[in-house]
Amino acid sequence: MNYKRVVIGFLASIGFIYLIIWVPRFGGLFKGELSIYQAFFGQARIDFGHLWRVILQVDILPLIICFLLTPLHVLVRTHRWALMIRPLGRLKMIDGYSLQMVGYFSNTTLPLRIGEVIRGVLLSRRIGASKSAALATVVLERSLDFVSLSILIAILGFVYSFPPEIKRAAVILSVFVLGMVLVMLIMTFAEGPMISKIRRIIGTVPGGIGDRLIGIIEHFTSGFEVLKSGRRYPVIIMETIIIWLLYAGQELLVLYAFRFHIDYPLIAASPILVAFIILAVNAVGLSIPSAPGGVGTFHAACIFSLALFGVGVNEAAGFALVIHAASVIFFISGGIPFMWREGLRLGELRQLKENSEAG
Q1: In three state form, how does the secondary structure of the chain look?
Q2: 55 pLDDT higher than 80
Q3: How far is CA 130 from CA 12, 211, 219, in A?
Q4: Which neighbouring-strand residues pair with 359?
Q5: Which residue in 70, 80, 69, 125 sits closest to 101, CA to CA?
Q6: I need a surface site. Which of 63, 151, 300, 313 has the fewest CB within 10 A?
Q7: pLDDT at position 318, please?
Q8: pLDDT band of 204, cuts 50, 70, 90
Q9: Least confident of 109-123, 235-249, 258-272, 336-350
Q10: How many of the other CB atoms lie within 10 Å of CB of 272?
Q11: In angstroms, what is the C-alpha Rg of the chain?
């Protein structure tokens, strides 16, 4: 496991949690006006009593509907993934749903989003494909999410002026996505020339290591075969749109649960647009390294996005806690039965990832 990345993720989450709760006043520390404690913890940003009252006043019905949308978007995502897998083998919906839930459970409870790797390893066992090919389908699925997020931000940019911080993050994300897409297209449509060049570079490595690496690359590229099948594009695109609509629907329902569409004029003017903007900012926030489940980074993104529409920090923190808790509760409580179905225990999840790296 890459412990350096784990530490960076936890430190990032701790830093964001600190900035959510307290207002640092380092200037007073350097001037000798404040003690170290006063500089770091002397001014609270969150009033926990107020925060608790905000949460207690939410409408339950929209939250219940929001919770029920989660298994629905997992179902749509499962069908989309099954279409991407089709060139490698057929995956039953119940089996695909099970693997998705184990992946979500792992991402929620373990660092480094290793649920994606675990999902790929379990898929290779389920359909009898190589690990590298199965992992390629997971990479393809997540790449489609990044591409669609970039498109969503670009569309929203025509009707809403994002703050400079979000624009910079969106540019970085778009460059990353473009590079990822180009690599996948080259590996799919220029596989022969690419493999030949790689073979000339590493094929002479002694001990059969070069041949083994080439074999892994060839298997990996087979996971992108669905890109050659244009007839599946319309369904995949349609289901991607449905997934984002369901995500935005959850944001909208929680806005209604907190009555933000009544209390804040900027949200009342266009609650659906606001839901999509919050969704886009939250998705960018989740791309930042963090502790398992996006703790801290997700909450900071929620508070930042709601502040754009005049929502106070306590109300926004309540929103972030509730919508995050809804997904965490579902993925943990729903993931455990599917782990049992796959014959897994919690301690085996990390071992699956390590075995995939060794294999």
Answers
A1: CCHHHHHHHHHHHHHHHHHHHECCCHHHHHCCCCCHHHHHHCCECCCHHHHHHHHHCCCHHHHHHHHHHHHHHHHHHHHHHHHHHCCCCCCCHHHHHHHHHHHHHHHHHCCCCCHHHHHHHHHHHHHCCCHHHHHHHHHHHHHHHHHHHHHHHHHHHHHCCCCHHHHHHHHHHHHHHHHHHHHHHHHHHCHHHHHHHHHHHHCCCHHHHHHHHHHHHHHHHHCCHHHHCHHHHHHHHHHHHHHHHHHHHHHHHHHHHCCHHHHCHHHHHCHHHHHHHHHHHHHHHHCCCCCHHHCCHHHHHHHHHHHCCCCCHHHHHHHHHHHHHHHHHHHHHHHHHHHHHCCCCHHHHHHHHHHHHHC
A2: yes
A3: 35, 16, 7
A4: none
A5: 70
A6: 151
A7: 97
A8: low
A9: 336-350
A10: 13
A11: 22
- The whole-number pLDDT of residue 159 equals 85
> What is the model's pLDDT at position 359?
52
Q: Please say if the pLDDT value at position 45 is more than 70.
A: yes
